Amino acid sequence: MNAAVPYLDLAAQLRPIRAEVDAAIARTLDNNSFCLGPDVAQFEKDFARFCGAQHCLGMNSGTSALHIALLLLGVGPGDEVITTPYTFVATSWAISYVGAKPVYVDIDATFNLDPALVERAITPRTKAILPVHLYGHPCDMDALLAIGKKHNLPLVEDACQAHGAKYKGRTVGTLGSISAFSFYPAKNLGAAGEGGALVTNDAAFAARAKSLREHGSTKRYHHDEVGFNYRMEGLQGAVLGVKLKHLAQWQAGRRRVAARYAELLAGTPLQLPQQADYAESAWHLYTVRHARRDELKKFLDENGVGNAVHYPMPLHLQKCYASLGYQPGDFPVAERASREVLSLPMFAELTDAQLERVAAVVSGFFHKHP
């Protein structure tokens, strides 16, 4: 029987760098620097340099970074933020946390916010646009930035799945006013637990974000405004500092995997992911589409090939946002995607044999179910 192909293998990523990670953790333990501290500070400098940005503030999650980003922009109760209904719910949580209303706009073929539909969603209450670089593929930022400039609306980039992705040669996370990254363990750059970062080129934003993440304080026991406990743990900064040194190599591995999938699956009925001319995807996920997604998923499960669905229900149809009043059919592109998408195994360490096994099982499904 052929060996199973896991959807994600974090152990394979960790094994070659285990000694480096262990040494970094030991250093943090010896220093007793558990909340922020020198390892977080160094990681912030290194990740800012990686992004080509002036400032990086380590947070306890990407969700927290998005929340702080909207606070920095003055978004609050009664305001509206235009965003996508097709992503992980944390993007909309940030809007709700500040008391604002998510206003959804349908997606395009890249699974990202469709710029052609954004302008008609703008109202006098609109305070920001919050696009997501979904699955690691950059949004069409020039088009979105032009709309933002025309209507004096800042853009917050949700780059939580897009570490190192590039738009026309520029690293995402540096194109809008503020960006947020997640270091959830399954991300391209993943911590040993939760973690996130806010990235910006605005010194004033960075200074206030630094205070807000630590209880609204710039001086211990003196609190300038209501803040939050959104600090990055020292251990996560240590682990991320080690992993960041290997990220370029891992990204190259993901590009290899994506290219090989494109070759192996070219003859199948699957709709394969494509990169727009302006984009260099981070290939966080390799997400294919087919109308018989659920049958294919079951077949992959039965034949030992890991897979996942991102995402089975768009946000406008979620119970938590029923009060917004959206109905089935309001965003047909997103709704169809939610019925058709399936993510195949994607990580840098996938071997040729594993990729060929995935392709063989996929082909087997279509031979069995023509």
Would you write up a description of this structure?
This protein folds into 2 domains: 10-244, Aspartate Aminotransferase, domain 2 (3-Layer(aba) Sandwich), CATH 3.40.640.10; 247-368, Aspartate Aminotransferase, domain 1 (Alpha-Beta Complex). It has 13 helices and 14 strands. The chain has helices spanning 10-14, 18-31, 38-51, 62-72, 90-97, 115-118, 141-151, 203-212, 234-244, 247-264, 293-302, 332-340, 352-368, and strands spanning 55-59, 80-83, 101-104, 126-130, 156-158, 166-167, 170-171, 178-182, 196-200, 217-219, 222-223, 279-280, 286-289, 341-344. It is globular, with a radius of gyration of 21 Å. The model has no long low-confidence stretch (mean pLDDT 96).
Count of individual domains: 2
Class per helix and strand makeup: alpha/beta
Evaluate the radius of gyration.
Answer: 21 Å
- Helix-strand topology string: HHHEHEHEHEHEEEEEHEEHHEEHHEH
- The CATH architecture classification of the largest domain is 3-Layer(aba) Sandwich
How big a fraction of the residues is strand?
Answer: 5-15%
Inertia-based shape:
globular
The helix fraction, in percent, is 25-40%
How many helices does DSSP assign? 13
Catalogue the unreliable spans. none
Instruction: Average the pLDDT over all residues and give the rounded result.
Output: 96
Count of distinct strands? 14
CATH class of the largest domain: Alpha Beta
